[in-house]
Batch of 4 targets.
Target 1
Amino acid sequence: MLQQTMIHSQIENKEEFKNRRFVTGKRAAREILLLGTTTSLSPDNLKRLSKILAGNVNWEYLLDLAKYHGVAPLLAHNLTRFNLTDKVPEIYAERLNRIYSDNIHRSIFLSDELTRILSIFNQNDIDVITLKGTVLGEQLYVNPGLRTTNDIDVLVQPDKVIQASSLLEGMDYTRYIMPKKPLHPFHRIYIKKARFPFIVELHWDLHDPKLEVVKREEIWRRARQYQYQGGNTMVPSPEDTLLYIATKLLVHDEKHFKHLVDINEIIRKYRNNLDWDYIVRTEKSLGITAIIYYALKWAQELLEAPVPESVMKALKPSLTRRCLISWLTYHRILISPEGWTKINNEIKTLAYSLMMGKRRQAFVVMAQYRGYDKRAIWLRTLAWIPLVLGATIWINFLNLYAGKS
C-alpha cells in the first residue's frame, strides 16, 4: 500500500513537472513573439531573446501564435537577421522560412495588381488613397513581405465610387454581395477569380459614419503623395494611419497583435515628427480618447513603443472607466490564439463600447455586432453580461495562475 502511494506520488509529481514545463514553454513562446516582432531590437532585448530561444519553448504554440496574428514572416526574418536560427529546431525553422517565402510571393502578386489598379484609376482621373496592405508594409518595414496582407484596400471620394466600380468590373472583378446586411456600410468588396485570387475593398469611408470615429475630409486634406513601384498614389498621414489602425484594434474579426506591431512601428519610424497635438485633439473631438489610450498603452507595455508620457496623461480616461476596461481586457487576449471565440468576442465588444466617449457610439458598436434592432441589442446584452463577467473572472484567474507558473 505504501509502495503504491509512493508510485502515485511520483506519477503526480512527473505530471505536475510536465504541466509546468508546458506552461513555461507557452510563456516563452509569448515572450519570443513580443521580442521578435519589431524592426528595432535593442541589444538587451536581443540578449534576452537569445537566452529564451535556448530554453524550453513550446514551438508548436509559437508558430500557431505567429501565424494567427499574421506576424510569422517578421519573426522568421528577425531570427535570420540576428543569426538566431541555430537555436530553432530544424523542422520549425523550415516552416517559418516557408511562411516567409510564401508571403514574399503573395506580396509581389498583390503589389503588381495594386499597381495595375492605380494606373487605371489615375488614367481616369480618380484620386486614390491606398490603405494598409503592401504599401504600408513598404512604408513601415521597407520590405513589404514582412507584413501579411490578403487583400487590396483603396479609398476614393464618394462621388467616384460608381466609376471606380465600373473600372474594376472591366478588370474582371465581380462584386461580392453579402448575404446579410453588411457590417461595413462604407465599402464594396470585389473579387477576381484567378490562379491567384484577388480581393479589393473599395472604400469611400474608413468606418461606419454612425460611429463618427474618423473625419474623411481631414484624411483627404492631410494625405501625402507616395511613389509606389514607379507609379503614384496617396497614403494617409502617419497620424491618421495610427488613429485608423487603433480604432480597429478590438474589432472582433481583426488580428489585434498585428495592429499593435504596426502602431509600434509607426511611432518608432516617425517619433521625431508625429504631431501628437493633432492626435490628442482629434481623439477628444471624436470621443475616442479611451480607444487610442489603450492602443498606445498596450503598444508601450508589450512592445516598448516610445509614447511620450505627456500624451498618455492627456488621454487617460476616468478611474472608473479604466477599472472596468482593465478588468475586461488583458494582455493575453491580444497575443493568444482565439479560444472561446464567442466569449472573447462578447468581452471585446463590451470593452470596445465602454471605450466610446458618446452613448450613440456605444450603441453603434453593439448594433454592428448584434444587429440594429434596439430591443434585441439590449436584451441580448443583458443576457450575456453575467456570462461575460463570469468568463472574465475565470480568465483572469487562469492568467494569474499562469503568471505564477
Target 2
Amino acid sequence: MDRRHHAEKALCEAMEKIIVGIIVGLTIGATINRHAPVGLLLLAIGLATVTLAGIATYLGHLRAAEDAAKGGSS
C-alpha cells in the first residue's frame, strides 16, 4: 500500500509541475507577445483540466481494483 501511495503521489506531483509549467509558460509568452492568441492559453488550461481529470479517474480505478482484490481475498 505504501508503495502504491508513493507512486500515486509522485505521478500527481509530476503532472502538476508539467501542467503548471505549461500554463505559466504560455501566460508569460502571451504577456511578452501581445499578438499571441488568447485561445492558446485557454486551450492549455483546458488540456490541463482534462489531464487532471484523467489522472484522477485512473487513480480511482486503481484504488477500486485494489479494494476489490482485498474484498475477494478476505
Target 3
Amino acid sequence: MKFGKYLAQNMRPGWEEHYIEYDKLKAIVKALTKTELQMPQRDISHYTTSLTVQGLPSNFAGKLGTKDVTQEDFFKEIDKNVEKIGSFTAMQVKQSKALLERLEREVDVAVRNKSPGAPSTGLQAMDVRAKEIGDTFLDLEKYININYTGFYKILKKHDKNLPSTPARQFYMARLHQTPWIQGDYSAVFVTLSRIYSKLRDDVVPESQDLELKDFLRST
C-alpha cells in the first residue's frame, strides 16, 4: 500500500488537518523532478554541494498546477509541517496532563468519601474517563510515529528523484532534535497508572485489571 493511502486510512478522526501534508510534498517533488530531468546534467552538477541541502538555484522551478515551485518551497513546507506537528503534539500532551491531574483529584475525593458497600457508580465513570484519556494518548503516540514515517519517506523520495540536492540525512538529524520526537511522556503514563491503582480495588474487574497491566507494559 502506498504511504499516502495508508496515512489517509490511519488518521484519527478530528485530527486530519494536523498530519503531515504528504500528498502536497509529494506533488512538489514530482514537479521538481520533471524540471530536473529536463535540465542538462552539467547544469545540475554545477550547483551541487555536499555541504548544504540548498544546492540548486532559486530559479530552478517546477510547475505545481499553475504555480512555480522551487527547492526552497519544498524545504519551507517541510519546516512548516514539522512546526505544525510539534505544536499539536505539545498541545495534546498539555491537555492530557491537565485532564489527568483533574481526574486524579476527583478520584482521591471519591475514594476518601466512599462508604463501605456503597455503589461505586461515580468511580466507574472515572474509570471510563481514565480509559478515554489513555486511548487518546495512545493515539497521539501513533500520530507521532506515522508523521515521523511520513517525513522519512518523503525525504527519501526527494533524494531518490533529486539526487543532486540530498536532504534526508540533514532533515532527519534535525527532526531527531525536535521536542515532539525527544519528548519524555512518561509522566502521563505514571499518572494514569496511579489513577488506575486508586480505582482498581473498587471498580476494575479482574479481567479489566489484566488489560490495564498489558496497556501499561505496552507503553
Target 4
Amino acid sequence: MADSMGRPYLSDYPEFDFNLSHTDGMSAVAVTRGVVGVDIERLRDDIDAINVAGRVLSARECATVLADVLPSKTPFFDYWTLKEAYAKAVGLGVRIPFKKIDVLLGQPMNISLQDVNDDGEHWTFELHGCDEYRLAVAVRRQKIGNIAIQTIEMNSKLEPQGQLAMALLRTTNPLNTRRSNRDERVQTCA
C-alpha cells in the first residue's frame, strides 16, 4: 500500500514502518517501529559534486565541502544520503527543499530545518560507508541503538546486479509484548 504522497506502508502491521533505496548494484531496506527512511548511494565519479552542492546543500554544508583540502565526493554524498533518508522518512522525498535541511555531521549527528514543518529534535541518524557506497538511516525517535553492517550476495538469477544490501531495523521484542525505548535494539545489514 502507499499513502497519498506515494510512501509505502504495511496496512496489516501499522506499528511497523519500512523504507527502500537502491543504487548501482545495491539495495537497502529499513524496517522498524516508528518512522524510518533509508538511502544508499554509490560514490559516483560522474557527479559534479561541487556544482550540485550549491543547489542542494545549505550554505554551511557547501562551505564544508568546498573547504576540503583533498577534494572528495564523500562529504557531499554524506550530506545527500542523510537528507534523502530524512526526506523519505517524512514522506516527501525530493519534494522537500534540500537546501533547507542542514545536517551537522559528527556524533551524534544533528539536523536543523528551515521553513520545514519539523524541528529535527526527535530524529536520530546513522551514516555508514560500505565500500564505494554511503548508507544513511533516519529514525524518528530518541535513539536508534546498535547497528551492524552485513553484505548479502544474491544469485544473479534473483538479482541482476549481483548484490543486495539490507538495512534491517527491528526491535528485540515480539509483536505482542509491551515495549519501551530502552528495550529497543536496531540491527542494520548492508
